[in-house]
Amino acid sequence: MKQLLIALLIPVLLTACGTATPASTPEPAGTDDSLSIPTVRTTPVATFTPVPPPTETPLPTPSAQVITPDNLNLLRAVRDLGRHPMAIYGVAVSADAQLVASASADGRVRVFDTVTGAQLYELAAHEDIAYAVAFSPDASRLASGGRDRTVQLWQPLSGERIIGIRTPGEDFRVAFSPEGSRFAATGYYSAIGEVWDAETGGSLFTLEGHETRLRAVAWDPQGRYLATSDQNGVILIRDAADGTPVHTIYQYVGEPISLAFSPDGVLLAVGTTRGNLTTWDVETQELVQTWFPHAGEVWGLAWAPNGKMLISSGADGAVRFWDPDTKERLRSITDHRSPVRGLAISLDGTAIVSGGDDRRVMLWRVE
Fold it and tell me: pTM for this one?
């Protein structure tokens, strides 16, 4: 009995003395600073690494000098955008000269950043040669045409394809209207071109009136006219609103494969397969000048924004600069050393881009 009583009293005495075994749930750490154990904190593992904001260090700023006859001796190839897998058929440069696009025989359209020289996108939708590319004035759209008889409409800043359009013929030339709301395409194996809505790619109207295969298309920068040319040398000057032909020009020597309106819309420059270049008065359809700037096809034409210089590229591998009034050659560039099929100048007049059979795309600025 005595032993049983002692056994029952021991737990009570131990509890009173504070030596009892702690309960299974511990007290919160740190209630007694002298006895607390440091808490271990684990850092969560990141599942996404955010892109850091742009640094304040500016990228190299390209020259902003407008290219003129007076500074042509300072024109330099500031960017060689690398050798492509196959020949370059078409090039384009955005209005502010920040983006360049190329169309290649491998069917790919490539977009480049001119400040860094980096390729931003390789756009693959054409199933054959990509012949032509063109930016809208605000660079929100990029159109491309190809041998596969399709026109593709892209968002160049994201690389997203908006729509692909099946056409009657191979699309050799594409061009945006000066306000950017529409674009047109013409090409081989069809006497009918077409104009589409630049936002949706929906068809607006066809370009009829030719009796043989189309070769080129160009918009009047003033927004009044749209010109198309065909294999027989017939050039139709159309009302830009609906494509109705209003004037006809007959190019008797060579097939007109390149067209370019002067900035004021008064003259139309025409380059042909015979190597000759002509300028025509749009309103009177009178021949103003004719000369032979290249030995072979005149693939590319572009006017300087001030209208005081006409630029051509050709099968002889040269890019040449001309006084359109006197036909004086102001400068010749032969860096490509093979046919130069693609030629474009930015609307701000600060950059020229060229591309050719040497598989190179080059950006030219005054430095």
Answer: 0.82
